[in-house]
Amino acid sequence: MSRPVAGALLALVLAATLAGCGDDDPYADYCEEVTAQQKDVTEALADRGPTALIEALPSFRALQDEAPRDIADDWDVLVTRIDALAEALEDADVDPATYDATSPPAGLDAEEETAIEAAATELAGPAARSALTAVDQQARDVCKTPLYL
Length: 149
Description:
By secondary structure, the chain is mostly helical.
């Protein structure tokens, strides 16, 4: 083999090897985080009570931070909607575990009640439900780790 051909072949092999090094699995960090958060998410959502999604919010934020591009928008929708409800309840100084929309607590003004209702409606809406389904399916399909959402 001539030196120019051997040199070109070596350059191609090195280029292919180096390109492979930069081609890390784009889901590796995310899947690691899914595995790390699975227990906390499962425990937070186990009873499906009124505070379940709010209790899972720290885990959801950690997952949002590691989310790959193809699922990042869904995590953004989900975390934003849960955050909005948590903030509306906090701003109204209402305990999420005891809040009952049919019988709001005494002293809750109309603006606070409207904010809570609007946030709850958005969280129960089709965009949030779709996002929840998407992030759960992504965890199962790509990470092989169910979040049990």
